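User: I need a structural model of ABC transporter permease from Faecalicatena fissicatena for a docking pre-check later this week. Nothing fancy, just the predicted structure tokens so I can convert them on my end. Input:
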Amino acid sequence: MAMALLANDNRKVCLRLARRMIRADRVRAALLSLSVLLVTLLYTLVFFTADSVHSSYLLSDQLEYGSTSHIVFTGLTEHQAERISGHDSVESSVELRSLGTLGDELLEYRNICLAAADKDYAETVSAVPEEGRMPERMGEIALDTMTLDSLGLPHETGKVIQLKWRDGEGTEHTDRFTLCGFWSGENVHSESCAWISEEEASRLREETGAKESVTLGVMLWQPKDLDDRAEEILADLGLGDVSFTTNLSYNSARMDTANARAVSYLLTGLFVVAGGFLLIYNIMTVSLHERLSLLAAMKALGMTPGQTGLFTSAYALLLCIPAVPAGLALGFGVFLWLARGIVEGYTGIRLELSLLHLWPALAAVLLSLFTAWAGCYFSTFRMKGWTPAMIQAFLNREYRGKKKRRRGRVTAWRLALASLGTGWRSFAAAILSLLMASLVLGSAYIRYISYDEDYYADEMYLSDYSFIDASCGGEYQRYNEQAGNITEEMAQKLRSCPEVTEYGEFLTHEVDLTADETLRRTVVDFYNGIDSYYGDVTRKESMSGQPGWVAGLDALEETGEYRSVLIGAEGLVMDYVLFYDILDGEFDPEKFATGDYVISVGATSQEGLSSAPAGSQVEIGDRTFTVMAAVADWGSIPAGRNSRAAEFSLNYVMPADTLQELYPGTHIRQIMVNIDDSKADRFEERTADIRRDEGVTVERKSDELGEFRQSVASAVSVGVFAGALLFGISILGFVNVIMTKVLTRRREFALYQSLGMEKRQIRRMVLYEGLIEGAVSLV
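Assistant: Understood. Predicted structure tokens for ABC transporter permease:
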């Protein structure tokens, strides 16, 4: 009957045999299903993490670019915009119709288009009001908060504000608007929009004669090689002089970076493939004798090699039916719990489900099925074509042992050594699985300890708290000296907090000064000199990429006039001023506190001075100061930027009260404080009103260190989790090998007892075997 079934309906019989084999040994089937579940979990975690990191990196590039459009064409006429929109390569497009740009000099590092409100375009550049609404009536305007902060304007709808703007011809105009909405401007954005209604745009065109300029954002059917595609579109339409920019998230170098980050996670998947295969192969190998006995019986009834493979494949796939979906669900849950922090730590982008794709789930399912099938199939692959007699001979040889016994006294130790050859394949698989898990964990640990939090904190952060005028809180914001967001009352409150252990503040004021002949020659000779770092190029020539800087140096050489940023420094911040080497002179804190001395600031160089030398005199305002010392420029503080006119500047540091005496009304730009860590909660309570003030940006060292720790955890967490899980299941596989080896040798132990071996000697032999195999696994 069985022979007829095998001959006529092999698939159904093989499937039935696989089901019966699962029922016959439920423990082994459960262990295999659990292994498949864990492997699927790991695949899901690794693939979804790689996908989310890749997508988030590209999204961060897109945010830096400032638009979701593939290509943005600027300076178009309406006719040109229509032609580009109708090109065969263009899937969709959005238009920005601008009258000009906001013209206040405080916005000189940003390009803010004054344009008729367009919701579709606003969504592509993240410029949709979060408070209030888009303009609908005459005289209304919507702006981003960075612009409001730079201009010293409150975040308050209904407020009437006066703005300067320039049309396309460069003519400056001034108009009054009512703020109807605003949104948070990202610090990475150097461009934004100032939205007005269509009616207001028409009024301004009629009154000023301003011409509309169209900016066109397009989405392509095939967004590859965007620069080439843009050139092709313009060439096809005969529009060769049109300016355009392309989305950074499609830039080949940026995509290579995103791919490299994703691949770093996918490499963990290689260990999962190998570890999962070895785990399943191991479990199947330790039960080899039972399965071979079944195969011998079935081959005696006429089972062919093809049917043997079909039976093994059906067995593996049946185990996957409950395990793979459960592993996929659990893996996705672990990913959502673990990877959100990873993605944000790496890219600064909070993970959204909309960023994810379907391929990680499909890859996890397919690879899980393949791993389970491969582990089961290859455990008996070489025996598919064996006859029943060959299988029985193999089983007898396994029981007898392959090597001839040496003559001599039989001891428990010798028997333990002799038994190592039994089941060596499953033992080797278990050891290899442990090795790979250890490699994953070890590499994650080595990567983790390579991060030095203390070094990072010392280099990056001078104080525990930094209170910054919001007008210069962003990278592209020029400090507004008239904003005055940090008041004297705030400063006095921070000084008087008992939790504050160190206090410091920066004040700055830009002035135009005239250099004497000594200073002029010192600076000009320094920058006309050759720097060994640049070879045969002068220091001035090395700055040719910054024409504003070169123009400032030329003005100093020709007229002696230069821009200077006067820096009032008090307390803690002086440590940062003096952080780098003093290039000339010595610092005397008592003399400096008198207000009769200043410190000149120059370029970092040991080959000469680029600022006023120690002992020289400098006239500032109506006073003459003596230069106490010359120091190297420290660069990163105070926050924000100075004016473009100060691109080349010779700066001076003086006490904060001296600067306020010289120029009354000079406001505090930045306050830095250190606190008693044990009283941090109390300090937070005392300063809650300052931190809530929209005119003050607060940076906390603890927050930055928290982000650093999160970034460190992001770098190693998937490796640690995958390695720990692989190590755990490898240990279970190793224990399974040892226990199964003992439990399946009852016939052998019975033979030893019949020859006079006592139970305690058998126990000792098994103990020796365990110790030897444990030692091998440790090595």
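Before docking, keep this in mind: Residues 1-9, 398-406 have pLDDT under 50 and may be disordered.
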